[in-house]
């Protein structure tokens, strides 16, 4: 489903759990070590830490190439929009929760229009506040991980066998995933596909925005609480969770990798409606049960879109612009954030 790249920041936490769980037993309060920085990396930092997953060897970072070819001297375009209603302005940036170093050149990580909007905004609103994101690994462990090997009992034998085949060359990952509930297992499978594309959590858009924003300002808020975001996943029914994982296993790893690269390229181009159209077409192909698949989208995308917009309207006010950054897959389409803002009387234009 590619939920991990753009639907919610639990993706880095799923990565963190997978990397640290081997050294953390349930008796140790379920708090895995975080393998990637919890706070944004300074732009000047020479280190290139990588998320580490059991049995996974990610592509080495190269200073001359990226997932899409030669390193660019210009930042990725990214989907960026300006919504206005009278004297109320909301800047909206579509993010990816993972990225490539070349997306954010150190001398200019974002386009001038984006940097100007950040400078003009007293508030930066992310899906989760930084404080909530720091403690989110506890909730992922609490609600996504079992004390015993529960995953095989949650899945039909055919789906479990398919997952075993997918991870047969990675026994460490298979051992870890056995203790996960299906929704978290789904995010982990997507994690491997994303890291195989060379994308890194520390180059997610939110971390890079904070690098810039915290130099001159400090007010960063969340558009939803940690509890609200977690319930979007933990309240999924057994059928919904199985559908979510089944969709990740429809294609081969190479086909999933190609999808990750396609989404990354579309995000670089910066057209939210093109991203939404591509995702809708992919959903039609991957859905095993269309009714259940649609209900998942409603829970983890459309309900949250409405919550995001409601919070934006509370934060923004006349002559008090707010800069909003949410996953790019939340923006476009007839039920996306941009259309919801239009329904509230905003004029929305590409920035």
Key words describing this protein structure:
two-stranded antiparallel ribbon; globular; 10% strand; 8 strands; alpha/beta; 6-stranded mixed beta sheet; 351 residues
Q: Which helices and strands appear, and what pairs or packs with what?
A:
Elements: H1 3-6, H2 10-20, E1 65-66, E2 69-70, E3 80-85, E4 88-95, H3 112-120, E5 123-126, H4 130-144, H5 151-154, H6 157-166, H7 171-177, H8 182-196, H9 205-213, E6 220-222, H10 226-234, H11 238-248, H12 253-269, H13 272-286, H14 290-315, E7 322-327, H15 337-343, E8 347-350
Parallel strand pairs: 4-7, 5-6, 5-7
Antiparallel strand pairs: 1-2, 3-4, 3-8
- Radius of gyration, CA atoms, in whole angstroms: 19 Å
> What proportion strand?
5-15%
The main β sheet shows up as:
6 strands, mixed
The helix tally amounts to: 15
Count the domains.
1
Q: Could you report the average pLDDT, rounded to the nearest whole number?
A: 82
Tell me, what's the shape?
globular
**Fraction of residues in helices?**
40-55%
Give, in order, the helices and strands.
HHEEEEHEHHHHHHEHHHHHEHE
Low-confidence stretches: 11-67
> Termini, distance in Å?
28 Å
Sheet/helix structural class:
alpha/beta
Task: Output the strand order for the largest sheet.
Answer: 6-5-7-4-3-8
Describe the structure.
The chain is an alpha/beta fold. The protein has one domain. 48% of the residues lie in helices and 10% in strands. It has 15 helices and eight strands. Strand 1 and strand 2 form a beta hairpin.
